[in-house]
Amino acid sequence: LFDDTVSPFTDFNVAYVPYCSSDFHIASRIQPLTLNNGEHFYVRGDFIVQGIFQELESLGLTDSSQLVLAGTSSGGLGALNHGVRLRQEGRFPNLALLVDSSWFIDHEGIFASINDRLE
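^ thats the sequence. predicted structure below, dont judge the formating
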């Protein structure tokens, strides 16, 4: 995709973010959840993404003529959530979204915050 001379992505920089938060990269809970067995489970994916964008901004990469936020499956839901928010904030007017394999059955209320932002 990036090596093809006819690909529109040939000259793009890439920042790969592995899916590591188990919360679609959207949770921002300070205190951990306590599981039934007493173990703690941290859901702080939103902080991860905020930190990544701060780093990209400090490197000047967000001033590019085009910025694509992409994700697949759970990462796609996170990309959708953050992309909509970042565009609404006006921080990245050149931001485009590429969401793949991320649409799940929408039970009323589950994705209300995302749906509200899209309307």
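The helical segments are 45-58, 74-89, 112-118.
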